[in-house]
Specification:
Among the domains are: 109 residues, Serine Threonine Protein Phosphatase 5, Tetratricopeptide repeat, CATH 1.25.40.10; 194 residues, Rossmann fold, CATH 3.40.50. The chain is 55% helix and 16% strand. The radius of gyration is 24 Å and the shape is globular. Strands 1, 2, 3, 4, 5, 6, 7, 8 and 9 form a nine-stranded mixed sheet that branches. By secondary structure, it is of the alpha/beta class. The chain contains 21 helices and nine strands. The N and C termini lie far apart (65 Å).
Length: 444
């Protein structure tokens, strides 16, 4: 973290607050910055760093205000411009973020962080070749820039350049071993290439450094070292999506994510009620992409998710009447009012065994109500998992046989109305095959 220059507040005081910030003590750092700001309300460094820590704590609109106040005092404060771009990017204002990064680079052509962040924005906007070039410029300016190497690997993965992506991800970890996204990307690439022994070795090295990490435990099962669980653990799902929350919408836009739109279209094909559904539940609502599409189709719209980070972003959309942080099956069994419709886009892929979830959903549904959800479609040759009807794939999500889903729905009081094959999104430019399923709760 770089400052703009001396002010009334002593340098030692600012360094102490920055130390807390760098150590990850965000609340203490914020308190320290606030104390310093009371002593010197116009100090641009304190305003800038307070904005950064507020952004990290999820208060991005406040961060925007504070960083802009710093820039009013020091218009050429390049690191503040770079961080302003980061806040704008997190708010989905990609064009404004891009302008900030390009402004920094016009004055400092070897600003590695700005090149990295510009690459991330261009990648989010689908300009993959330009993004890759930006990451390469960042690495040329600073060869040990672990974050630039990490995102270069991600972009190369998007482009189908698996071996180069693998190399850059490994370089990133060699510089900074504390990069979970790099470990996950390496394992995904090795799994895609069928190199399971190497994937296992990577995960076991990661496991030795983070023995209680639920992501590591889940991925070890996904590559076949450990027994396949019936569903992803709550700790895995909440950690995964809390980490993913700030980039969720931009990443899925880049992947041509279609599941919410497919769910909305299925609703329109099958909803026969007069007017909106009285109570509609978006199960695994994430940032609210599906709920936003269905807002006009619901009287009361309820969003449920395990990730508080996702729910914070869903709240910013303003489309939900109620948001609940809970595990789906548990919440469904406690539901008293009854839903008219339950929708779930790309959430059932974190459940292998669907029996408990479908039974709980039936208990939470009014007779005749609709259930609409997606699963990733397992349509490959028979193997040892066929008896179960689902498998845990190397990327950590479950896929399901169509016959298994139909059997489970029938067993738990659902009448299947439609099973429609479709593409849910793309990964590494390859389509992800899915099923869009609509079922009605039996009236008897």
């Amino acid at each position: 973290m770089k400052g703009s220059g001396p002010g009334i507040v002593g340098k030692a005081d600012i360094r102490q607050a920055i130390h807390l910030h760098r150590e990850g003590s965000l609340e203490q750092a914020r308190a320290a910055y606030r104390r310093l700001l009371k002593q010197d309300p116009g100090n641009p460094d304190v305003l800038h760093f307070l904005g950064v820590v507020n952004h990290q704590l999820g208060h991005s609109k406040k961060a925007l205000e504070q960083i802009r106040q710093a820039l009013e005092r020091v218009p050429d404060y390049l690191d503040a411009h770079n961080n302003l771009g980061n806040v704008l990017k997190s708010l989905g204002r990609l064009e404004e973020a891009e302008a900030e990064y390009r402004g920094v680079l016009a004055r400092a052509p070897r600003h590695a962080d700005a090149w990295t962040n510009l690459g991330r924005v261009l990648r989010a906007r689908g300009a993959l070749e330009e993004a890759i070039e930006c990451f390469e410029r960042a690495i040329a300016a600073r060869p040990d820039h672990a974050i630039a190497l990490l995102h270069h690997g991600e972009a190369l993965w998007d482009d189908g350049q698996y071996e180069r992506a693998l190399d850059q991800s490994r370089r990133a970890i060699g510089i900074d071993p504390d990069l979970p996204h790099a470990y996950r990307r390496i394992v995904t690439i090795l799994g895609t290439l069928g190199r399971m022994d190497e994937a296992r070795e990577v995960l076991e090295n990661w496991e030795r450094s983070e023995t209680d990490n639920p992501v590591v435990r889940h991925m070890l099962a996904a590559i076949g070292r450990d027994e396949t669980p019936d569903r992803a653990a709550d700790a895995y799902v909440s950690r995964l999506f809390d980490e993913f929350a700030s980039t969720f919408d931009t990443v899925l836009a880049r992947l041509e994510y279609r599941a919410p739109r497919l769910i909305a279209e299925a609703f329109d094909r099958h909803w026969t009620g007069d007017g909106p559904a009285a109570r509609l539940c978006d199960a695994g609502c994430g940032t609210g992409q599906c709920g936003e599409l269905l807002r006009d189709r619901a009287g009361v719209l309820v969003g449920i998710d395990l990730s508080r980070g996702m729910l914070d972003l869903a709240a910013e959309r303003g489309c939900f009447d109620h948001l609940v942080c809970a595990e789906l099956e548990t919440h469904f069994r406690q539901e008293r009012d009854g839903f008219s419709v339950i929708v779930s886009a790309d959430t059932f892929c974190y459940f292998g065994d669907l029996s408990g979830l479908l039974s709980a959903a039936a208990s939470a549904m009014r007779p005749g109500g609709l259930l609409l959800f997606t699963v990733e479609h397992w349509d490959g040759p028979p193997n040892a998992d066929d008896e179960r009807g689902f498998r845990l794939d190397h990327h950590g999500r479950y896929s399901h046989r169509e016959s298994y889903v139909r059997d489970q729905l029938a067993a738990h009081g659902w009448e299947v109305l439609e099973v429609r094959p479709d593409v849910l999104r793309k990964e590494a430019r390859e389509p992800v095959a899915g099923l869009v399923i609509t079922a009605r709760r039996s009236i008897d």
